[in-house]
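Case study.
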Amino acid sequence: MSDRNIKLTIEYDGTHYHGWQIQRNAATIQGFIQNALTKITQTETQIVGAGRTDTGVHASGQVANFHTHAQMSPAALQKAVNALLPSDIVIIGAAEVSPDFHARFSASSRTYRYTILNRVYPSAFLRNRAYFLPRPTINVDSANAVCRALIGNHDCSSFQRTGGGRANPVCDIYESRCWKEEDLVHFEIEADAFLRGMVRAIAGTILKLHDAASPVDQFRKILEARDRSAAGASAPAYGLCLTRVKYDL
Amino acid sequence: MSDRNIKLTIEYDGTHYHGWQIQRNAATIQGFIQNALTKITQTETQIVGAGRTDTGVHASGQVANFHTHAQMSPAALQKAVNALLPSDIVIIGAAEVSPDFHARFSASSRTYRYTILNRVYPSAFLRNRAYFLPRPTINVDSANAVCRALIGNHDCSSFQRTGGGRANPVCDIYESRCWKEEDLVHFEIEADAFLRGMVRAIAGTILKLHDAASPVDQFRKILEARDRSAAGASAPAYGLCLTRVKYDL
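After joint prediction, the assembly is written out as follows.
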């Protein structure tokens, strides 16, 4: 039997999980999916995810891959895994890919969305998915101008979680914008890579600056400081969602 | 101090509740709201709801009212109640209304929406809000034709829960339609009144008939039978939501 490489696209409500990455004695997304695959393929199976989302963070388009000798079709595998997973983790796509596809290293970009509910009363349905910020009312034009200033190649150390040191703190930010949709304000950032805690630190900083004088200039200074203490506090995890991972393959 | 009449508009995720109506030793929406109001007004307070939603049923526009001597502004009251409520129940509007306003008896219509996720894999985010029906693929044109046949004045006994006997089983159905929105199929019905279990029985019947020969004729026969056993099985509670209550006042 030949070894096959299967790509999974995954949606999850991260509310009740200790993040993506498998940990001993903690409920994690990776852990539940690996357990289901191990049962179905009857072989200890490990998966690689494109992005390591933190506790409480969601995904609508996480990608993972695994190698298996199992001969099921991707559609049958998807159905079988979904039947074993808790209802807040769902495989939304499965496909056989080339042997060298690697969910993490082959990715050309990741997109994260941060969502804020910006009105005076909360939402029963979005309670775990949008950061409830009754005030101030966000100046979306100003927040979007700050977002645009982030596009390009930058050392993002100012937005890296303390202790989250990555060898290379330079990120290539392809797209960054802010827009309003009724009472929701969304920030979306697409980049080749993200440092730990980066989107939440950027969201917190944009919120801090959104109504300041010269917010774009202030944001550039924070970026150039390469110092986490120069930026704003992190926005809460529950407003964050990994929406898409792109591959050139 | 004069007695004031306050109208509340309420959104809730019904997943973890035994329905709207207060019951001893069970978590209910009415129970939580009354407890919060009793604490805030420091007087035993009872509320009247426009519609009694069942266990697991949601609302995005339930309406209730209560009489109080408390002198807080409606906005201050809304904020105080929301601070005491669990996060899956939210007061989305509060207003002082005329003394004779009664959430139930003054209502001129109620609108319920039934939502089905009609694709091969479930949704992590809509897991408690849309009935997951992987197959068959619903014929929306046919389902909508059946919905249109429901408009008008009808004895709806065929869609009344056994034992849910209401003195008058005649409902005036103002609007009834079915439409598709990506992988979701929605049914929406607006009527002066609903019998117990009516929308779920209608949704189940439409699903049973959606691809039948002459579905509209068959639906008319079921309606004319005035017998619950003539109709289809009830669709599950978690796909149902009370979206709006209208008042002529």
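Observations recorded in class. Chain A touches chain B through 23 residues (CB under 8 Å). Chain A has a mean pLDDT of 95. We will return to this complex in the next lecture.
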